[in-house]
Amino acid sequence: MASQLTVRDFFKRFPDDEACLTHIMQVRYGLKHDCRACGVEATFHRMSNRRAYACSHCGDHLYPTAGTIFENTRTPLQLWFYAIYLFVTTRHGVSGKELERSLGVTYKTAWRMGQQIRDLMTKADQFDMLQGHVELDEAYVGGHRPGKRGRGAAGKTIVMGLKERDGRIKAEVIPNVKMPTLRGVVLRNVEEGATVSTDELMSYGLLEGDGYKHGAVKHGAKEWAYYDYRHDALHHTNSVESFWRLFKKSVAGTHIHVSQKYMGRYLGEFTFRANHRQMENAMFDLLIGAV
């Protein structure tokens, strides 16, 4: 496992906006590359009066923050980098109020920064379809109201998680748990022929016909795991359920409430951290590269 990126390490690496801008330039283009204007491999020098670099051969200006979440921002780059650092080093997420206090910005600015970083995490976490043995489980998040409890409580958002056994995870918001909906999610995200473990929800009965090796544990009958000799597989949904426990606990403890409108962004944030938790330093660089 990579060593933890400490606060001291962070500020040593990025002591000011200049260091942050240089890092963005290096990640996006490199300080020496083929100029888009003259085509010559040239060195690019920092301009003193703007966030730009100039080609040493023809003088063409290159703005490394153009087209990124940093473009036209009045918030110092170092604060943006520190906000990203907080997102990759936390376990339970970062609230808008925490960003407001940590960065010394307004709540409106902190909330906007947080949402843009979550979008960045979702963008950086794109990968091919899940393979091998995949656990599926749907969950109902938020929406607690007086007199309403459980899965059917009004205002809850339905989410679906797909977790490779000892591997990657994907999650998305779904409108319902009907067969066409669940089938569509599986077909988009799980490679045909994979072994799939679910609970006993009737809508998952579709999977065998689509070429998956499907096994269902009967939670209602207090069955939490069983060995399928036909497919040589141990069926349970413990891994994906652990993800949902952490996610629900974090939403309740850190964010209090997340609306359905923004739930996808928070799922993207948590799945990104789950998929890259072994590489904390590289996780930060991966996000900066994704800008």
TrEMBL record:
Which PANTHER family does this chain map to? DDE_TNP_IS1595 DOMAIN-CONTAINING PROTEIN, SI:DKEY-17M8.2
Q: Which residues form the ISXO2-like transposase domain?
A: 129-275
This one is known as Mobile element protein
SMART domains registered for this protein in UniProt: DDE_Tnp_IS1595 (SM01126)
Q: Which organism is it from?
A: Candidatus Phaeomarinibacter ectocarpi
Alphabetical list of NCBIfam families matching this protein: transpos_IS1595
Q: Tell me the first and last residues of the signal peptide.
A: none
Q: Where are the transmembrane segments?
A: none
